[in-house]
Design brief:
The protein has helices at about 25-35, 55-60, 70-80, 95-100, 100-110, 150-155, 160-165, 180-200, 215, 220-230, and strands at about 45-50, 65, 85-95, 115-120, 170-175, 205-210, 240-245. The chain is α/β, with parallel strands linked by helices. Bound molecules: iron/sulfur cluster.
Length: about 250
């Protein structure tokens, strides 16, 4: 029988540990495919801080380094500066990059570090128990906001990619989703461009991917996709938020 589909070489054969219905696995696969298509598996070093992505080193075929919570981009900066010929990327949850690691996210982009960051936004801290994050939506119930996020007390959700897009060193910023086949294809295009930006040495690139967390949202996998579409997509600006002139030709 003709083989029509196979696992990308960018991923190992270790089964994902993610909860059923979680879209983290799709994002991993897209990154793995991009690494394979750009033929950079052997030249890439990934960095994953604490969070649901923390076991990424088991799943990707490239080299991988673990980092303390929120410090992925600082570690990636050090690796890239020491080994400028390597392709260096981070994969971080929103609780990690937009809360604990906010300062790194801002300054890495301001400095235009030539790394690629993939932010997985599921509107809360996933692995640590579903606590409220800066990305948690107004009124959203989490384990630390049992009556719903009260924006009068804790402020409104931070749209990190929008902020990063204002910084000169960030040359490519996109916000995508993996809730439908069409959106998955668009997400892959954005992720690929973010790696190509680094291959050409153009500057910092960030792709934020809206992702589900059925476990902490207390929803079925199908209802989680619906919830993401109806609640997250209207709040977070979607699409290519910044394409610097030098990136347009890619
Ligand atoms: S806790 Fe949420 S984000 Fe983490 S693996 Fe489970 S469903 Fe996915």
């Amino acid at each position: 029988m003709e083989k029509v589909f196979g696992r990308t070489k960018g991923l190992t054969d270790v089964p994902f540990h993610y909860c059923p219905g979680c879209t983290h696995g799709i994002i991993h696969r897209l990154i793995g495919e991009v690494l394979e298509e750009l033929d950079i598996i052997e030249d890439t070093i990934g960095v994953a801080p604490v969070g649901c992505t923390g076991f990424s080193l088991d799943f990707f075929s490239c080299d991988f380094v673990g980092a303390a919570h929120g410090r992925g981009q600082a570690v990636a900066t050090g690796i890239k500066r020491a080994l400028p010929d390597k392709i260096v990327f981070t994969i971080q949850g929103d609780g990690d990059i937009a809360a604990i690691g906010t300062a790194h996210a801002i300054h890495v982009a301001a400095r235009g570090e030539k790394i690629t960051s993939i932010m997985v936004n599921n509107a809360l801290f996933g692995m640590t128990g579903g606590q409220m994050a800066p990305t948690t939506l107004a009124g959203q119930v989490t384990t630390t906001s049992p009556y719903g996020r009260d924006c009068a007390v804790v402020g409104t959700p931070i749209d990190l990619p929008k902020t990063i897009a204002t910084l000169n060193g960030a040359v490519y910023v996109a916000a995508v989703s993996v809730d439908t086949p069409k959106n998955i294809m668009q997400a892959k295009k954005a992720i690929k461009k973010a790696f190509q930006v680094q291959q050409k040495g153009l500057g910092y690139a960030l792709v934020s991917v809206l992702s589900t967390c059925p476990t902490n949202w207390g929803l079925s996998p199908v209802d989680s996709l619906k919830w993401l579409r109806e609640n997250m997509m209207p709040v977070y600006q979607m699409g290519e938020l910044k394409v610097a002139k030098e990136v347009e030709a890619l």
